[in-house]
Amino acid sequence: MYLPDLKGKILVLLRDPGMAQALAPRQAELASLEAQAFLLAQEARESPLPLLVDPEGHLVSVIPERGVLVADPFLEVYHLGAVEGVEEILDWVRFTGAQCPECVLPEAEWL
After folding, report:
1. Quick check: helix, strand or coil at residue 86?
2. Predicted model pTM
3. For residues 46 and 38, is the Cβ–Cβ distance under 8 A?
4. What residues contact 23, with CB distance under 8 A and at least 6 apart?
5. Three-class SS state of 79
6. What per-residue confidence (pLDDT) applies to 104?
7. What are the pLDDT digits (tens) for 24-70?
8. Which residues 6+ apart lie within 8 Å of 36 measured at CB?
């Protein structure tokens, strides 16, 4: 899968199979938040979440072992780092979903 093809939903990338296993039962909740989670690995393997293979390890190498990357529907990264567990991942997804790209003020001088 080509990364830009993932635009349109909040993106969650994990590299820890145990964290992916813990998040898998919450996929319906992720869907209700307009998010999709993927397990990221350098080679094909069984996964409780959809698998994204990164053979060269470009993305795998930047996500901490017990970490996660959370990006908005336009692939702007809101969190890249360690998390305590599934609830913190969902908190980041909710936070990302609450951001409003249309609400960002243009850079201009105020009169």
Report:
1. helix
2. 0.85
3. no
4. 12, 14, 30, 37, 48, 49, 86, 89
5. strand
6. 54
7. 999 999 999 999 999 999 999 999 999 999 999 998 999 998 999 99
8. 6, 9, 10, 11, 12, 30, 50
